[in-house]
Amino acid sequence: MTDLPTDVEIHEEGPREGFQIEPGPIATADKIRLIETLAQTGLRHIQVCSFVNTRLVPGWADAEAVVDGFSAKPGVEYTGLFFNGNGLDRALAFKHKLTINGSISLTASEGFTRKNLNRSHAENVEAMKKHSALQQAKGVAVTRIGVMAAFGCNYQGDISPAEVISTLRDGLAIAAETGAEITLFSLADTMGWATPARIERVINEVRSRWPDMLLSLHLHDTRGLAVANAHAGLKLGVTRYDSTVGGLGGCPFAGQPKAAGNICTEELVMLCEEMGIETGVDLDALIEAGRLAEAIVGHQLPSELIHAGSFGCVPAQGGVTRSSD
Amino acid sequence: MTDLPTDVEIHEEGPREGFQIEPGPIATADKIRLIETLAQTGLRHIQVCSFVNTRLVPGWADAEAVVDGFSAKPGVEYTGLFFNGNGLDRALAFKHKLTINGSISLTASEGFTRKNLNRSHAENVEAMKKHSALQQAKGVAVTRIGVMAAFGCNYQGDISPAEVISTLRDGLAIAAETGAEITLFSLADTMGWATPARIERVINEVRSRWPDMLLSLHLHDTRGLAVANAHAGLKLGVTRYDSTVGGLGGCPFAGQPKAAGNICTEELVMLCEEMGIETGVDLDALIEAGRLAEAIVGHQLPSELIHAGSFGCVPAQGGVTRSSD
């Protein structure tokens, strides 16, 4: 009795998440080099930049230069993040090169909505109605509902599955009102509150209501449980994951200045491949990409795997180790 | 349908594993302070030192001073590691304070046996016969068979479940020949080759042969999968785990100079408690102990949880964060 998927779709967000949080600046050429290296690993979905307010996120002032600069590999889908009409217009200027997917983005926590967006959940619902309509008016299909803080919140505490359900219902109401057809729910553990038990509770509740909806997990390793959470998701048959090479990213939230970033792509890939779940990714090539990312940011990244390397043997020579276990 | 245990027994090995690998020296008083702090967290099994050859492991030259120095808390079991008669004699000098358990220690990998002990598996079996008899002659019951490299080996590659079974059989033969009654198999992922899939394969094979034997997992986070591996173990009903506070430890093996240490006790505790599995440990007190360990060693430890803190809220004030997921 298993729900294990035969394969999963990994969405690499290292370039976008990682270079957004680094004190930087990271050279445009380095960003391009990492994107092109990642495309050679077998990854087929790479988020390459964020079209955000340059004043708020100076690390992405060069978004256009990055998108313009990298050589796209056929078969790989490249995306750019946007939050509003201005960001969308900037993305649309590269529609020959980027895949542009529309989204309704909500948060299961009122406290985090206020912190993150300076508005109430009700105000955010209204804003998302306009944003959904705007995206479609510009020819971008809105197919995804994203729910941030789906497993807990630094500003509000525990988030119940009922709050996630309620948020998804709000998203579906926005979609219905604006004529969007939703095919994907993305559940984000924005502040690292997920645990395998919480993943199971939320996924089971969502599944019981929308059994046919495609689900995606966006996991952070803030409290060290990201890979265990992915393991729980895989056991439940969740087939889509966001991740970042090397564990790029980090946590900009209060009280967690040294917290880890997203789940490491390479640890996720190793987990899947070992479970017999195909990722399409060459693990050793990905580990090399993680090492490149580490060299680019100039400090140790959270990934253990890029430091240990994948399974491989070394000659038994040199001193005796005297290990006990 | 679940095999989830109601509670688990955690064996804290941070003081022994951690201070063995640090370039040090770590002050004896600091070791004692960490041991006493750990005993206040609810942990009931703490390995406090290693009675090893001081030339090979200079970090434990002060084993006697540490054991002599800490104040034992009633109800907490303190142990010291030993490999041979000399180490056992040093431990027995503190039998009023230490719990002394006998063990038969083998390795599922011939390559690692040679590297670690400079002997063949067959020679190690002979040595363990003598060691088992010696322990019992000194009044120490031998109840445990430990198998190192049970999930893979840097010097030999994959280790099959059949090799683990064969090693356990060798251990049981030693026990039978020397009159030892074995109640526990400890399976160690010495070089970080375990994955949830490998854990499942090995545990299921062992269980099918010895359904009533108590099993223990000793996990390393070398490739970032330790918590996921513990999750797999818990799902299979494994009730005993070794771990180190803060993820103290590290990997002395070839090719892995920056590799992580053991599974973090605090991440294991959070995982269990969230699954409804009792550990008896106060997570926040344990996180404070991890922070003390980090202060003592003077560099960042691998634990994410000691940096992020346990679940807790902060007031929603300050700047807007503009997170996307």
Task: Describe, in short, the structure shown.
Chain A is α/β, with parallel strands linked by helices and 325 residues long. Chain A is 40% helix and 13% strand.
What is the CATH C-level name of the largest domain in chain A?
A: Alpha Beta
Oligomerization category of the chains in this entry: homodimer
Mean pLDDT of chain A, nearest integer? 92
Individual helix count of chain A:
12
Compute the number of strand runs of chain A: 8
Quickly count the domains of chain A.
2
Helix content of chain A: 40-55%
Structure classification of chain A: alpha/beta
Task: Choose one word for the global shape of chain A.
Answer: globular
For this structure, the CATH topology of the largest domain in chain A is TIM Barrel
Largest sheet of chain A: 6 strands, parallel
Element order of chain A: H for helix, E for strand? EHHEHEHEHHEHEHEHEHHH
CATH architecture of the largest domain in chain A: Alpha-Beta Barrel
CATH homology group of the largest domain in chain A: Aldolase class I
Which value, in Å, is the CA radius of gyration of chain A?
Answer: 20 Å
**Spatial arrangement of strands, main beta sheet of chain A:** 1-8-7-6-5-4
Extract low-pLDDT stretches of chain A: none
Largest interface: A-B, 86 and 86 residues
Spatial gap, N to C terminus of chain A: 34 Å
* Strand fraction of chain A: 5-15%
